[in-house]
Write a structure and sequence with these properties.
- With 455 residues, the protein is α/β, with parallel strands linked by helices.
- It folds into 4 domains: 107 residues, no CATH class; 61 residues, no CATH class; 43 residues, no CATH class; 188 residues, Uracil-DNA Glycosylase, subunit E, CATH 3.40.470.10.
- The chain contains 17 helices and 12 strands.
- The protein has a 5-stranded mixed β-sheet, with helices on one face. It has a 5-stranded mixed β-sheet with strand order 7-6-10-12-11, with helices on both faces. Strands 8-9 form a two-stranded antiparallel sheet.
- The radius of gyration is 32 Å and the shape is elongated.
- It starts with 5 loop residues before the first helix and ends with a helix.
- About 1% of the residues have low confidence.
Length: 455
């Protein structure tokens, strides 16, 4: 098999040899000694294989000794009569293939983690970087796309003892040439070594775990490896000094508003420029609350959904329609309520053309809390309704035990009466029609508690 283009060459040969007994074939690399007997290949045959085999065989092609070629062919030969072979993990051939594939995956992971680039060339030219790495297996072709995707905005070369991979002007190329390790360093390595030394935590040092994940065979290519022995040697003394130092009191967490707006309009305008958490990067816009500025009741949900993000208004999507219907049954006038969300930006994961809702993280809820507190301050509602765990966390500091707390009254962070209930989206997700009907009834009963309060 050739050093580059290995997977394609093996596939073409395997189509010719699929019905030849594995014991009659001698697989090897082109740079290995030529065998004494070398017969021409029979004609190629059309064949189909399970998807699992296609992925597995690509990994096996990188095995250094050539055993991966033979193992892949053995599986291919047997798959012609036994299509379910790969599902039997205890089969000796399948087990051998999985063991080799695991070794290859580990080697790929190590190359992903331990390649270190150095700047090469003078500053008058486009900046270029180079790295040296010594993989256990022949994984250069398999790993190339990873580095193109990760470092596609710069020119670089990754050199191994057998292959040089180059990415320049947006084009990837590979050449099978012998190389030796360069000895030059650069200023960036010194900066990285200083940074590594400063983030080293002696209290969390576990030498066995560190050397298992970062074997010493890779240390000669890592600039930080120069300081690791010294950091390990001084770890115990550093921990003792940390333990002997007097404890510092924890700083209280104070939620402060970015400024003190006089109206909801001013607060809304300021919120449009909020960058306190990463959600603003992907959301279409800030979705502010709406309703009477002096509403007696404030309804707080989780976050805007896809429909709300596009429309710029809260509670207009499917969950909002469920709320409107239940509020009407319960005798609660939505038009008289101020409706808003604990988080003002839509958090989602893109899947094809769809944007799939994701629950906000605690840090994102806390980042958005000043805006919610401003709404409470400006509207001054007599009663607040928390719909869902995220709203409950924002308003009380804890969103745990929602179903045990629903239907009960508590207080907001600023001391207002708070009714706890589920979010309408919870009702929409229930698959059982009978259970959904019961939960909708319970939700309407929760809202009746608010609708029946004196104004």
């Amino acid at each position: 098999m050739p050093r580059l283009g290995t997977a394609t060459a093996w596939r073409d040969a395997a189509r010719c040899l699929v019905h030849v007994a594995p014991s009659d074939i001698d697989w090897g690399w082109q740079d290995a000694p030529t065998p004494m007997f070398d017969e021409p290949l029979p004609p190629a045959r059309d064949l189909t294989v399970p998807k699992a085999f296609a992925a597995l065989s690509r990994l096996l092609m990188a095995e250094r000794s050539g055993q991966g070629f033979a193992t892949a062919h053995t599986l291919l030969h047997r798959l012609q009569a036994d299509r379910g072979l790969l599902s039997r993990r205890a089969d000796p051939d399948v087990s051998r293939a999985e063991r080799i594939a695991k070794e290859i995956r580990r080697d790929l992971h190590k190359m992903h983690a331990f390649v270190r680039f150095r700047e090469v060339g003078d500053q008058s030219q486009r900046r270029r970087f180079a790295a040296w790495f010594e993989p256990t297996h022949r994984i250069e072709e398999s790993v190339a796309d990873f580095f193109v995707n990760r470092f596609g905005d710069m020119d670089w070369a990754i050199i191994t003892p057998e292959v040089t991979t180059t990415y320049a002007d947006g084009k990837l190329s590979q050449e099978a040439v012998p190389s030796t390790r360069p000895d030059d360093g650069d200023a960036l390595e010194e900066l990285w070594t200083t940074y590594y030394s400063n983030i080293f935590n002696p209290a969390r040092l576990k030498v066995d775990a560190m050397t298992a994940e970062m074997p010493k065979k890779y240390w000669k290519n890592l600039p930080e490896a120069r300081v690791i022995p010294g950091l390990i040697a001084g770890a115990r003394a550093q921990v003792s000094a940390m333990q002997a130092a007097p404890a510092r009191p924890a700083r209280p967490r104070i939620v402060e508003a970015p400024f003190a707006p006089q109206t909801l309009g001013e607060a809304c305008a300021a919120a449009r420029a909020c960058t306190a958490c990463p959600l603003h990067c992907n959301a279409t816009r800030t979705v502010w609350g709406e309703g009477p500025a002096d509403a007696d009741i404030m309804i707080v949900g989780e976050q805007p959904g896809d429909t709300e993000d596009l429309a710029g208004r809260p509670f207009v999507g499917p969950a909002g329609q469920m709320f409107d219907q239940s509020a009407a049954v319960a005798g609660l006038d939505r038009g008289a309520c101020y409706v808003t969300n604990a988080v003002k930006h839509f958090k989602f994961v893109q899947k094809g053309k769809r944007r799939i809702h994701q629950r906000p993280a605690r840090s994102e809820v806390e980042a958005c809390l000043p805006w919610l507190m401003q709404e409470l301050t400006l509207v001054q509602p007599n009663v607040v309704v928390a719909m869902g765990a995220t709203a409950l966390h924002a308003l009380t500091g804890s969103g745990t035990g929602l179903l045990k707390r629903r239907g009960h009254w508590e207080e907001t962070r600023d001391g207002r009466p708070l009714l706890i209930t589920v979010h309408p989206s919870f009702l929409l997700r229930l698959p059982d029609a009978q259970q959904r009907a019961a939960e909708i009834q319970a939700f309407q009963n929760d809202l009746r508690q608010v609708a029946g309060l004196p104004k």
